[in-house]
Amino acid sequence: MEIPPKSPDGSEKSPQSKELMTSNTASTLCISSRSESVWTSASRSKWDIYHKPVIVVSVGAAVFLFGMVITSLSCIQIKNKNVYKMCGPAFLSLGLMLLVCGLVWIPIIRKKQKQRQKSQFLQSLKSFFFNR
Asked: What membrane topology does the UniProt entry give (predicted)?
C-alpha cells in the first residue's frame, strides 16, 4: 500500500477532508462577472455609461472626414490617382459604418437604462410587500 505524503506542517488530512474544504469559486465568479453593475447599486456618471459609443462616433467621424479628404485628393492630384481612388471610398465606408453604429448604440443604452430603473423599482416593491 502507498502511504500518502505528509503535509509540511506535519498534520495529515484525509481525502475526505480535502473534498470538504470550501471553495472560493462562487465568490470569484461574482467578482469577475461582466455584469458587476447588477450587483452594485452605485450610480454611474453619464461618461461611464456613454463613453464607448461616444468614442466610436468620434473615431467614425474622423475616419469619414479622412476618407472625404482622400477622395477629394483623387480629383485634384494627378500622381497616384488610382491609390486615392481605391483608399478614399474604403475610408468613407468604414467611417460611415462606425458613425452609424455609434449613433444607434446610444438609444439602445438609454432603453436599457430605463428598463434597469423599472426593474429596480419593481424589485423594491416586491421586497416591500413580500418581506413583511
From this structure: Multi-pass membrane protein
* C-alpha span between 108 and 90 (Å, rounded): 27
pTM, full prediction: 0.58
Q: Residue for cell digits 475616419?
A: 63
Q: Report domain extents, the chain.
A: 81-106
Please tell me the distance from the alpha carbon of residue 20 to that of residue 132, in angstroms, as a whole number: 37
Cell, residue 9: 506542517
Task: Please name the residue that has the C-alpha cell 470569484.
Answer: 28
Q: Which conformational region is residue 47 in: left (phi greater than 0), alpha (psi within -120 to 50 degrees), or beta?
A: alpha
